[in-house]
Amino acid sequence: MTDPQQQWQQSLDRWTEDPTTNLGTFIADLFNALDKAMAREVAPHGITGLEYSLLWHCLEGECTATQLAQVLPVDGSRISRVVTGLVDKGFLRRRRLRTDRRIVMLRLTEKGMELTSGISQNMQRYYAMLTEGIGEEEMRVFASVTSRIVANHAVTQWPE
């Protein structure tokens, strides 16, 4: 088993060989690190990373399952199942609009708000640890490059 520093150096070595062909490896390594940390953080609370992400998107206020399906990497039927599970656990509440009973609004319960806020604070501390020693300008460049990659993806037309 290699230590984290060796794993990071191996990733960096793969990245610098040819950044255009190893972009996927670099992103996958970062995603896996963040995903594992998230799983460790949420597991004691009996929820998954996806459930936390859904709750986190509800921190701002009410939203619909359709809105959540647009920002989470799963389809609408999976969102519905996750919402039902979170309602059953007491973290989320449903409310139908009086003006259009077909629309169901989702809102965090007090229990859901406490859980989501606590996990969010812990993850922010973890992110601070990960970015220790990285300057503000480096983070701005990282954010800029990431944003451009995401924007390029959004307009990419894949052949059918």
Question: Can you walk me through this structure?
Answer:
This protein starts with a helix and ends in a 5-residue tail after the last helix. The protein has helices at 4-17, 23-42, 49-57, 65-71, 76-88, 110-130, 136-155, and strands at residues 63-64, 92-96, 104-108. It has seven helices and three strands; from the N terminus they run αααβααββαα. The chain is mainly α and 160 residues long. A hairpin with a 7-residue loop joins strand 2 and strand 3 (104-108). 65% of the residues lie in helices and 8% in strands. Strands 1-3-2 form a three-stranded antiparallel beta sheet.
Poorly predicted runs are none
Biggest β-sheet: strands ordered side by side in the sheet: 1-3-2
Q: If helices are DSSP runs of H or I spanning 4 or more residues, what is the number of helices?
A: 7
What does the radius of gyration come to? Answer: 19 Å
Mean pLDDT: 88
- The separation of the N and C termini measures 42 Å
Shape: globular
Main beta sheet strand tally, sense and closure: 3 strands, antiparallel
Query: How much of the polypeptide forms β-strand, as a percent range?
Result: 5-15%
Derived structural class? mainly alpha
Helix and strand layout, with pairings?
Blueprint: H1 4-17, H2 23-42, H3 49-57, E1 63-64, H4 65-71, H5 76-88, E2 92-96, E3 104-108, H6 110-130, H7 136-155
Antiparallel strand pairs: 1-3, 2-3
Helix pairs in contact: 1-2, 2-6, 4-5
Brief synopsis:
This protein is mainly alpha-helical and 160 residues long. 65% of the residues lie in helices and 8% in strands.
